[in-house]
Specification:
This protein is an alpha+beta fold. It has 8 helices and 5 strands; from the N terminus they run ααααααβββββαα.
Length: about 220
C-alpha cells in the first residue's frame, strides 16, 4: 500500500533527527498506522475485530513504550480507547441510575471526561514495555440483551497467561466494550463498589478528586 511505503520511508528518516523531533514523528507515525487499521476494518466491524484491533494497538504501544514515554503512550491510545470503549455507558453503569440521576448536566460531563482520562491513563501506565507478549482471541459467544463476549489471553514470554474477557454491545458507531474481566474478576464490579462508596460517604466532588489522584499516579509510569 502507498501509505505503508510512506510510513516506512518516514521511519528511516527519523534515525538521524534530534530526539524531540524523533519523539514527535514516532507518535505521528503510530497514529497514522492506527488510522489506517481503523479505516480498513470499519466496513466489516464485529466484536472480535474490535478486540483484535485494540490488542494489536496495545502491542504496538508496548514495543515503543520506553521511547514514547507516558505522554506519548497516552496520545497514541486516546483514539484506540475511544473507538473500542463505551466510556459514557460504563461510568453510568458504575454509578447506577440512582447516583447518575442526581447529577446535573455539567457534573455528568465532568465525571465522563475524568473517567475517560483515567481509562486511557491506566492503559498508558500498564502497557509500557514489550517482552515478547502476544494476545490471542479464544472465542466469541452470545450473551443476553444482545451483548457479545470475546474471550482472549495475554501470553507472556515465560508461557504464563492472563485471561481478558470483554463484554461488548452494539452502538451506532459499532461494537464497544462495556466491561472487562481479568482472570474472571469484573472490572465493572470493582469500580462499582469503590465509586459508589465514595459517592455515598463523601459526595461527587470527592469522587472526582479520587479519580484525578489515580490519573496523577498513572503519569509517574
Amino acid at each position: 500500500m502507498l501509505i505503508g511505503k510512506i510510513v516506512a520511508m518516514k521511519a528511516k528518516q527519523i534515525i538521524n533527527m534530534k530526539p524531540i523531533i524523533k519523539f514527535k514523528l514516532a507518535v505521528l507515525l503510530l497514529l497514522i498506522s492506527i488510522t489506517v487499521i481503523a479505516d480498513n476494518n470499519s466496513l466489516n466491524e464485529n466484536p472480535e475485530q474490535v478486540i483484535v484491533q485494540m490488542q494489536s494497538s496495545l502491542i504496538q504501544v508496548m514495543k515503543n513504550g520506553e521511547k514514547l514515554g507516558y505522554e506519548g503512550r497516552f496520545k497514541f491510545l486516546e483514539p484506540v480507547i475511544d473507538q473500542s470503549h463505551d466510556i459514557e455507558l460504563i461510568i453510568k453503569t458504575i454509578l447506577g441510575s440512582t447516583y447518575w440521576s442526581q447529577l446535573d448536566h455539567e457534573q455528568k460531563q465532568l465525571i465522563t471526561k475524568t473517567f475517560r482520562e483515567l481509562s486511557i491513563a491506566t492503559y498508558a501506565s500498564q502497557f509500557t514495555q514489550y517482552e515478547g507478549e502476544q494476545f490471542e482471541v479464544i472465542e466469541q459467544r452470545d450473551l443476553p440483551h444482545e451483548q457479545k463476549l470475546v474471550r482472549s489471553q495475554l501470553i507472556k514470554s515465560d508461557g504464563g497467561t492472563v485471561n481478558f474477557d470483554y463484554v461488548l454491545h452494539k452502538t451506532e458507531q459499532g461494537w464497544r466494550i462495556v466491561n472487562i474481566l481479568f482472570d474472571g474478576v469484573s472490572d465493572l464490579a470493582i469500580k462499582r463498589g469503590e465509586y459508589r462508596a465514595v459517592m455515598q460517604r463523601d459526595g461527587f466532588q470527592a469522587l472526582i478528586e479520587s479519580l484525578k489522584e489515580k490519573i496523577a499516579l498513572a503519569r509517574q509510569n
